[in-house]
Design a protein that fits this description.
Helices cover 27% and strands 40% of the residues. The protein is α+β, with helices and mostly antiparallel strands.
Length: 132
Amino acid sequence: MIVYAITKTISIDAAQDRVFTFLADAANWPKWAIVNVLSVKPTDDHWWEMETPSGMAKLRIRPNADLGTLDHDFNSPDASWTVPARLVSNGSGCEFMITFFQPPSFSSSFFEEQVALVDRELAQLKMLMEMP
């Protein structure tokens, strides 16, 4: 069975390696993921404790610079999922692509509302990365 998915893409006029380094560090996520990540704190393993508008959750980023992948795992009391993400070079800049799969506990309308909020975060990421 195919699960409902939404992919978001944004062009960023900044070097791919700079954007990758920024996104691969969970400590930077509250700076750009301004809707969903209020704060983060590293734990003893590869996970980060993450404060969200809905409460506490855990985040693990699995970066691979050679492939440009920034897949990450999210675990909260009410849902858990993996989010595939990729950064590819585009001239002097790059393209950031992120795919969200609808969790079974989310209605389609709630899922679409939540994914729509990511547009604000991607605009914030673009603004931060394109600053001199």
